[in-house]
Design brief:
By secondary structure, the chain is α+β, with helices and mostly antiparallel strands. The protein has one domain. A five-stranded mixed sheet has the order 2-3-4-5-6. Strands 1-7 form a two-stranded antiparallel sheet. A hairpin with a 5-residue loop joins strand 3 and strand 4. The protein starts with 5 loop residues before the first strand and ends with a helix.
Length: 161
């Protein structure tokens, strides 16, 4: 088991702190439900700063690999996780002042779980229906289609087993 890190996000951003670490994929239960394997780990760098308007921000950089199930061939698909998220602390501005092209926001939390933040950002970055590049795999339909064109032939053969 790894040591979980907690930060006071408001203080972390105002003081310009930085935190680096690695989290095993197996220690992220919501992410593990979406993967074919929980092998590996994700490296992160969390940096606090203030934007040009003085708003406290968090910048989260992630680097790792997730093993998803291809929806075309149902086999393992390596999906690189390399992203940088800039997050504004939520209580810094009233919501009506933020435009749609502004940063994503997270609530300022005196006990922010860094692992949960990392897991959430990975989940948001995953494709809805992951697939290998076209031509890299074959659809998992071999043996399901019969030459006579009747889709119930397959069911009939399964019934007799």
């Amino acid at each position: 088991m790894f040591a979980r890190h907690f930060i006071d996000s408001w203080d972390f951003a105002h003081k310009g702190k930085e935190l680096r670490g690695e989290i095993p994929v197996a220690e992220m239960p919501r992410l593990a439900d979406m993967l074919i394997s929980t092998d590996g780990q994700v490296s992160y760098v969390l940096r606090g700063y203030q934007d040009k308007d003085g708003n406290p921000m968090l910048e989260l950089s992630l680097d790792g690999l997730c093993q998803l199930r291809c929806q075309r061939c149902l086999q393992r698909m390596d999906y690189p996780v390399r992203l940088v998220s800039r997050l504004m602390l939520a209580d810094t501005q009233p919501e009506n002042e933020l435009s749609e092209d502004e940063y994503d926001s997270v609530p300022a939390d005196p006990h922010q779980d860094v692992s949960a933040l990392v897991e959430e950002e990975i989940l948001l970055s995953l494709p809805f229906a992951p697939k290998h590049e076209p031509g890299a795999c074959q659809a998992a339909t071999e043996g399901l289609l019969q030459s006579d064109g009747n889709p119930f032939t397959v069911l009939r053969s399964l019934k007799n087993k």
